[in-house]
Amino acid sequence: MPRAPDEIVAVESLTKTFGGVAALSDVSFRVEGPGLVGVLGPNGAGKTTLLDLLEGLSEPTRGAVRLFGAPVPPYPRRRVGVVLQKEVQLERCTTREYAGLFAAIYGVRDGAARILERARLAQRASVPMARLSGGEAARLFIATALVHEPELLFLDEPTAPLDPAGKQEIGEVLRGVARERTVVMTTHDLREADSLCDRLLFLVGGKLRASGTRDELVAAVPEGRRTGLGVEDAFFHFCAVRMRRGEAEDPS
Amino acid sequence: MSAFWALARLRLLDVLRSASSTSFVLLFPVVLLVVVGFVFMNGHPFEERTIAVVAGPGAAERPLEALGGELDPARLVHVESEAAGLARLRARTASAVVVLPRGDGISRVIVGPRDRLFGRGIAASPGVRAELAVVELPRWGYVHYLFPGILTFSVMLAGLFATGYTMVLYRQNRFLKKLATTPMPKAAFVGAQIAARSVLVLGQIALVAAAGALLFDVPFTVVSALWVALVSLLGLLAFMGIGFVLACVLRTEDLVVDIVSAVNLPLVFLSEIFFPLDALPRPLAALGALLPSTHMVQLTREILLFGATDPGQLAGGIAVLAGWTVATFALSLRLFRWHR
Question: What is the predicted ipTM?
């Protein structure tokens, strides 16, 4: 795959197997420039496996990852921020101490204050982080992942534990973040993806079924199959139909 | 603040903010010392009588042969000087001291008030011409003998659980995975765990030492206290290294608790914590002699009870503790993965 000048993430024929079972099969895509990329798929689709590989937490069985045009490893940790699925809750640690730890790890002077300000948690600095609401905690984790001003941010289902108001709030935060940097997030919420993401990747059964902008993917759905649900129509067109075809073709 | 200090501070605060963890680390050893001290202040029911024999150059051999004929030779322990024999008597690691004469002189049998009859028996044994001397001994002598064992047991628990349990917890709550996404160096992470636990254990040692000195007259001096602190920190490193290896191999908190508990019990019996190695069957004694816990007990006992503060005297035990530390940390750094 030739390298584009503003290439941020490039994945080539990425495959990951666990005990002979493929969690990810031959996935290839490229992300260029700033914006919010959504990786969509049901539970078990391989989203977290894909993010683990992109975050340098595991090694591919086959294929390669390139970040900022350079092969991984070595991993450019200082240029990347990460928000994990079900983030860490240190029971007896205050919000300020948690922020301070990550500011210290990245060597950012006054980083704790910057995190708290960005997360709008300055008034909650002395509260144990386990007592933060879902929305507050999500803001803290995102602000912490941005403390070193990374060019690329990965988030694994950041809104999954939130109520609708929390999802909307974090959605707005992410839109703001994605104006200046590349954000790759996984989600299984099709409506959220529809409203937030500039570009989408549909992942089902460890395989990339389709990718493109929202409008490109929706436009690919035959007129008669559109129900006006946008990304939802596209997801079921590309994923559900092919899954049914796959089952029909599978003699077992 | 560097990542190392930030993480060490966070770890320390995490323990200090938990009443149960703080009590376990700081108060449990003191309670254990007080309970065991009062229960066993007069010795334990399985105590075997040992005689410290002082045989200087040109000492008569006949009384020794006579004693050997009367007693199990294993119960005769040779010591360098009368002072060393008396130190054993004070620490209740010997029931009597026999100072052999030169030539045809008269031996001296020294016992405490409790063992007056035992002393008379030795002095009256055929072939042992001896005069009996009864000396006053500290009331808490057996507690002095137990003290190094209790200190070691406390440091051992703190070390094994500190890394073993905490690392598995960090793995389960995904803190290690989170750190893996950052530029946090592995060595800084491990160092922070060691630093935080060392501060706690120093507090623990200070409390146990204060309780030992104030309640049971354990004979601390400034020099011996510094040596005990050094030996305890070395022991802590060795136990933390073992806990670290366990944490790299085991996956769940429950399993770590079970395994550490299972390891603990034999260590207590094989490490001279309650009774000397030579009271054990030979294969078990040989195994016990390899353990870091045994060396920590023996070093602390040598320092506190027998006044050994010369580095040359302590070098062997310190080398064993250092060896365990280097081996276990080298192995665990090889096995350690931020994320599975």
Answer: 0.89
